[in-house]
């Protein structure tokens, strides 16, 4: 279709359907007909006058949101209509049918609307009004209180950390067999709540506790983003969670009529693990609920048919030998068998799921965060008697460092501390929805009424010496979340263990009992200190040290022939050899160079003779 310069191209769901001489009039007509109900309310328009293009969208998958229509500088959601809504005289669908509220997709919102946040901000140019100023926020962000007082990177962090918070993820968790799940023992509703939390019902799935938080340093244990936590509060169940992990397997069927079997493997089975490995299994090969298990314990005893139908034994007799295929607990894990489910897989095979539970008590290194992006790890657990306390005997549950506040510009965190204190004294939850002005003056009056300093400061006494701390300390209530990053799931060390077949270096990763990488930067530090032997120990002796036989005449790698009981050079008939200590990775490199058709020679010399 030839494009006329004075005509607008019209697209319907991305396909060209024609042209129109007056684009503005077409767009105006579509919007007018949509609002009057002549065309469906899910139709949206995008208008690009500079390139003379109009996009009409009716397809599925567009994110659309409701906005109040504004005409001639006045909102169509009048006080009379608001009164009818309160009296349940009209419903939501009536607002859409009567052209008071309409749904916009991102395209129409960008090109054809000018949205006012508040009713008092409306001018003649505005086309729409937000139903609520919090409507500009996402599902997650709308649940964070007082975000307009924080810097935007902190809001971004708080959003991602809210998704990682451990709480009550589902009310039927006892019936579920999720791969990995956490349930908090005593989750609490936040004292400072947001309206979207109530509207969306996320308060029922909340994860966190309201903590008494003091802003001060504590003997250097909360340097940087470290936090000091009251050990006695932890012992009483603060931020405590239960971890559930599911192991499952099924009796698979194989061609030829063979199949797996749940049983205690017999000692004749290939890969038999020894009698002690199967000590917790019942006759049917399954473990019982309530049993305490540790690393590498067998949970489900299982045998599989051999790879080949018959294998010849040492005596030349053809016999069918099963393989060991039991499901074991991972080496670094432990716990209690919570439940065992015997069921059928979608393919009709017998299937078993075993759920393990383990209590995760907060410990040094565990991550916590407020709803303002103030994240940190526990640096010290202090008994209550050693923690600072107020004149009323209130002991902080958590101590954060004052330096965490100014550079991060999380004023919302400080406001929550103050308003949380007010809410506790008044016995009422406070609405902290973003863009709802926090009335600090009223808060100060409440604190004054209860005999507190209006700015939230208090005098604390040292729990160790009993002396008064010569500083006014900001203290109040903040909602803190415990995050998924638990040190017990990440802590990893090894002395000796498995090595890779190819490089002879230690395996990689916690799950494979791997080593910790001593990288190039660590190497540079050791070189800087001149600790040569330490470098050799780390990079060779403790990694992939090997002693290779080198032919002194031709410089090639020799090998030891155990039948002739002497070293042999594959190139020449030399009897002159040296044993050279090297990294196996170097030997591998030389072999790879040989595969390219290059012959590297190892030139040896006796150091003592030089």
Task: Tell me what you see in this structure.
This protein is an alpha+beta fold and 610 residues long. It folds into 5 domains: 8-131, Hypothetical Protein Ta0175, Chain: A, domain 2 (Alpha-Beta Complex); 147-240 and 364-482, Dna-directed Rna Polymerase Ii 140kd Polypeptide, Chain: B, Domain 6, CATH 2.40.270; 243-360, RNA polymerase II, Rpb2 subunit, wall domain (OB fold (Dihydrolipoamide Acetyltransferase, E2P)), CATH 2.40.50.150; 492-541, RNA polymerase alpha subunit dimerisation domain (DCoH-like, Alpha-Beta Complex), CATH 3.90.1800.10; 545-595, RNA polymerase alpha subunit dimerisation domain (DCoH-like). Helix content is 20%, strand content 27%. It contains 13 helices and 35 strands. The strands form 10 sheets. A 6-stranded mixed barrel has the order 12-28-13-26-25-31. The longest helix is centred in the last third of the chain and has 16 residues, at 411-426. The radius of gyration is 35 Å and the shape is extended. The relative contact order is 0.10.
């Amino acid at each position: 279709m030839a494009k006329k310069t004075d005509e607008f191209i019209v697209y319907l769901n991305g396909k060209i359907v024609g042209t129109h001489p007056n684009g503005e009039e077409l767009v105006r007509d579509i919007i007018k007909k949509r609002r009057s109900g002549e065309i469906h309310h899910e139709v949206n328009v995008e208008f690009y006058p500079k390139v003379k293009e109009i996009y009409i969208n009716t397809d599925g998958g567009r994110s659309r949101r409701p906005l109040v229509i504004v005409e001639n500088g006045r909102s169509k959601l009048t006080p009379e209509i608001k009164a009818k809504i309160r009296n349940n005289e009209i419903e939501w669908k009536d607002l859409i049918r009567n052209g008071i509220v309409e749904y916009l997709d991102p395209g129409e919102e960008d090109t054809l609307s000018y949205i006012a946040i508040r009713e008092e901000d409306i001018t003649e140019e505005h086309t729409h009004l937000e139903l609520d100023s919090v409507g500009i926020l996402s599902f997650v962000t709308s649940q964070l209180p007082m975000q307009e007082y924080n810097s935007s990177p902190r809001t971004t962090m708080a959003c991602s950390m809210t998704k990682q918070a451990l709480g009550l993820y589902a009310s039927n968790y006892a019936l579920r067999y999720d791969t990995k799940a956490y349930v908090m023992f005593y989750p609490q509703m936040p004292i400072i709540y947001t309206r979207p939390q109530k509207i969306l019902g996320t308060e029922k799935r909340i994860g966190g506790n309201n903590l008494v938080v003091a802003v001060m340093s504590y003997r250097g244990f909360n340097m940087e983003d470290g936090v000091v936590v009251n050990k006695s509060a932890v012992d009483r169940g603060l931020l405590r969670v239960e971890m559930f992990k599911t192991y499952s397997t099924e009796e698979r069927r194989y061609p030829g009529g063979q199949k797996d079997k749940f049983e205690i493997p017999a000692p004749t089975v290939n890969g038999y693990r020894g009698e002690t490995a199967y000590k917790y299994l019942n006759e049917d090969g399954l473990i019982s609920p309530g049993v305490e298990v540790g690393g590498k314990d067998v949970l489900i005893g299982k045998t599989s048919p051999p790879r080949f139908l018959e294998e010849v034994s040492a005596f030349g007799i053809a016999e069918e030998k099963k393989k060991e295929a039991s499901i074991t607990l991972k080496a670094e894990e432990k716990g209690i068998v919570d439940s065992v489910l015997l069921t059928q897989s979608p393919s009709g095979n017998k299937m078993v799921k075993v759920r393990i539970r383990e209590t995760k008590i907060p410990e040094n290194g565990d991550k916590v965060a407020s709803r303002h992006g103030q994240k940190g790890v526990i640096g010290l657990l202090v008994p209550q008697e050693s923690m600072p306390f107020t004149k009323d005997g209130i002991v902080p549950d958590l101590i954060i460092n004052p330096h965490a506040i100014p550079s991060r510009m999380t004023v919302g965190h400080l406001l929550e501390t103050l308003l949380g204190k007010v809410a506790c004294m008044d016995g009422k939850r406070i609405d902290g929805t973003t863009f709802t002005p926090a009335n600090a003056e009223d808060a100060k009056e409440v604190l004054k009424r209860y005999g507190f300093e209006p700015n939230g400061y208090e005098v604390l006494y040292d729990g160790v010496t009993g002396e008064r701390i010569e500083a006014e300390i900001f203290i109040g209530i903040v909602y803190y979340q415990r995050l998924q990053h638990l040190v017990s799931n990440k802590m990893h060390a090894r002395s000796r263990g498995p090595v890779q077949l190819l490089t002879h270096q230690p395996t990689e990763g916690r799950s494979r009992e791997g080593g910790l990488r001593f990288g190039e930067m660590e190497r540079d530090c050791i070189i800087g200190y001149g600790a040569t032997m330490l470098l050799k120990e780390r990079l060779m002796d403790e990694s992939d040290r090997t002693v290779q036989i080198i032919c002194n005449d031709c410089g090639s790698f020799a090998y030891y022939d155990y039948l002739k009981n002497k070293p042999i050079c594959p190139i020449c008939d030399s009897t002159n050899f040296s044993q050279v200590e090297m990294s196996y990775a170097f030997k591998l490199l030389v072999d790879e160079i040989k595969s390219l058709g290059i012959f590297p020679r190892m030139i040896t010399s006796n150091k003592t003779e030089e």
